User: Which sequence fits this backbone?
């Protein structure tokens, strides 16, 4: 019977303990209460971390959801645990953010991520941890459509090149500006004046400058044959080097390597208007009889073309810069518009390889014309008959690059 | 000495020297031209060293944290190959570097050009022309006809005769109308540059003359 008080005491303690655990949080009357624990704060859930797709690695995409119930937290924190176990706070994000891209991990290394919610300056909730290993991908799926089209077009170009090599005649229509190249050089020869060739103001990584160098080769060969001096001021040092090689080659092909003068192909300045001022000076002092403006031009185009016109030179220009073509059309005798500049190499050389390539590009244009016509018809009729709209949508998807 | 006025006078004199070209070539223009070309060439050399060579190559080869990234020796070698042009015996090495530049440029640009100049344009043209009012339908038709006929103009495999020729004529006509609009638009932008220069001469430079002569307020 002497055990009875002890059993009663034990029962009272257990009852009190149970009551305390049911109330949750610190016992009432505790003055130091954290704001976070006073109320239920919404926490992050369903956390996912995946390697960022279609990239060169070094990135992990993290996304999560927030609990619907509870007080909105002040902010969210992204925590990363590296392979050494060291935790790192990657970012503090505003409430409402549901995704984050970590762009600092190393490829092939496993990282653990978790999201915490802050309330009143304290951590009020945390998601579980998820792991991700960043890696590089070989294929960018957003460009598969473009790859398919490119492969088909490359196949067509190769087919035409092979046809050309086998002796099939490949017709190219006349391009007025290019047909005048020989006449312009001939005129300069008759007048005993030099030919001025301006290859634009961009570097050799520009496709128009590359096209311009091909035409320069032809002009160089003609000037070598006719014995006219050829001046090529450039605004890029690499273009100068390439131009020297191209002109030298042209003189060798014409059997006049002795007539090649390296000093006539020189560098002025990289500065756009400095170059324009320098070329203008050459024009008014050397008074060339023929001027070629072929390549990439910007605001200096009209300054150059107008000065060339003022010295009475025959001018042949060409560029694929839409905003500069009007100036050339207004001030020059012949203008190669856009793609005519790129077609020039094939037109001038008549090489089967280049002609085949041009034919292949024409096939590409035909393909795009058909695509546009079918697409527009499908989209227009699709407004009234929905099945056709899906055809238009498919064609749009085909040419979409993400 | 008031350096601000010195700067204004230098700017004004060089501007006037350059504008003197509108009359004819003359020693003042020659002076301004050579000054411009020489100074800008020098500026670009320094700019290239400190904004291209050092951050893109040197700092990658010898990072701040120490170490040596040997892979960056390769572009350095290619740069030296370019300089080999000055030595006739090994001048051919520069062709390797030039080939690399031209090949890389063409390859990288192929994707960009194909994406922005071909695919994006085709995608932008596939739409219903029967939407909106009469004016909207007309605009849509002009756009589609303009694109298709413009493409036909740039078709090199067929002579511009018959139906192809007529379509190509429509294409080049629409192109010329577009060029005309672009011409007018750009001329307006150029005029604003001229106005800016005239404002500088009239409002910044001209008032300094009485001040230098000690007359006026």
Assistant:
């Amino acid at each position: 019977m002497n055990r009875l008080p002890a059993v009663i005491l034990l029962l009272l303690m257990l009852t009190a303990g149970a009551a305390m655990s049911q109330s949750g949080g610190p016992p009432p009357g505790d003055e130091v209460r954290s704001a976070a624990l006073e109320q239920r704060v919404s926490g992050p859930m369903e956390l996912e971390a995946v390697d960022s797709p279609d990239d060169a690695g070094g990135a992990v995409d993290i996304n999560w959801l927030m609990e619907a119930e509870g007080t909105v937290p002040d902010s969210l924190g992204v925590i990363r645990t590296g392979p050494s176990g060291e935790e790192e706070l990657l970012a503090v994000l505003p409430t409402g953010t549901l995704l984050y891209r970590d762009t600092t991990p190393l490829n092939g290394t496993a990282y653990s991520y978790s999201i915490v919610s802050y309330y009143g300056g304290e951590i009020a909730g945390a998601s579980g941890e998820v792991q991700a290993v960043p890696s590089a991908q070989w294929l960018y799926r957003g460009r598969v459509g473009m790859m398919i089209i490119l492969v088909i077009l490359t196949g067509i170009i190769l087919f035409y090149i092979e046809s050309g090599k086998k002796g099939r005649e490949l017709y190219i229509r006349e391009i007025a500006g290019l047909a005048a190249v020989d006449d312009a050089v001939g005129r300069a020869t008759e007048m005993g004046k030099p030919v001025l060739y301006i290859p634009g103001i961009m570097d050799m990584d520009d496709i128009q400058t590359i096209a311009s160098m091909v035409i320069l080769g032809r002009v160089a060969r003609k000037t070598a044959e006719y014995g006219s001096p050829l001046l090529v001021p450039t605004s890029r040092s690499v273009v100068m080097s390439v131009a020297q090689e191209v002109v030298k080659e042209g003189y060798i092909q014409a059997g006049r390597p002795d007539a090649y003068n390296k000093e006539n192909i020189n560098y002025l300045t990289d500065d756009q208007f400095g170059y324009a001022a320098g070329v203008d000076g050459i024009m008014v002092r050397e008074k060339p009889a023929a001027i070629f403006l072929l390549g990439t031009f910007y605001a200096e185009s009209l300054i150059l073309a107008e000065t060339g016109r003022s010295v009475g030179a025959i001018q042949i220009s060409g560029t694929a810069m839409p905003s500069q073509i009007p100036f050339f059309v207004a001030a020059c005798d012949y203008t190669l518009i856009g793609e005519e500049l790129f077609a020039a190499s094939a037109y001038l050389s008549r090489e089967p390889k280049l002609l085949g390539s041009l034919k292949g590009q024409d096939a590409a244009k035909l393909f795009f014309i058909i695509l546009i016509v079918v697409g527009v018809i499908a989209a227009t009729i699709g407004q009234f008959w929905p099945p056709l709209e899906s055809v238009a949508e498919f064609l749009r998807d085909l040419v979409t690059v993400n | 000495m008031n350096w601000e006025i010195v700067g204004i006078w230098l700017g004004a004199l060089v501007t006037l020297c350059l504008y003197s070209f509108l009359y004819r070539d003359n020693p003042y223009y020659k002076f301004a031209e050579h000054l411009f070309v020489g100074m800008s060439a020098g500026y670009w050399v320094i700019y290239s060293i400190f904004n291209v060579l050092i951050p893109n190559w040197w700092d990658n080869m010898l990072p701040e944290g120490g170490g040596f990234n040997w892979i960056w020796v390769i572009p350095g070698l290619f740069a030296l190959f370019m300089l080999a042009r000055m030595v006739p015996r090994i001048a051919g090495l520069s062709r390797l570097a030039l080939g690399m530049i031209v090949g890389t440029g063409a390859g990288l640009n192929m994707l960009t050009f194909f994406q922005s100049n071909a695919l994006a344009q085709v995608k932008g043209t596939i739409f219903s022309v029967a939407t909106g009012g009469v004016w909207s339908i007309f605009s849509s038709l002009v756009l589609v006809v303009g694109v298709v006929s413009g493409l036909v103009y740039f078709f090199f495999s067929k002579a511009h005769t018959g139906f192809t020729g007529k379509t190509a004529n429509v294409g080049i006509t629409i192109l010329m109308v577009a060029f005309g609009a672009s011409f007018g638009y750009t001329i307006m932008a150029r005029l604003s540059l001229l106005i800016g220069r005239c404002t500088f001469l009239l409002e910044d430079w001209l008032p300094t003359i009485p001040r230098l002569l000690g007359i006026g307020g």
Helices of chain B lie at 3-19, 27-61, 73-83, 94-125, 134-153, 162-205, 208-213. Chain B touches chain A through 67 residues (CB under 8 Å). The longest helix of chain B spans residues 162-205. Chain B has a mean pLDDT of 91.
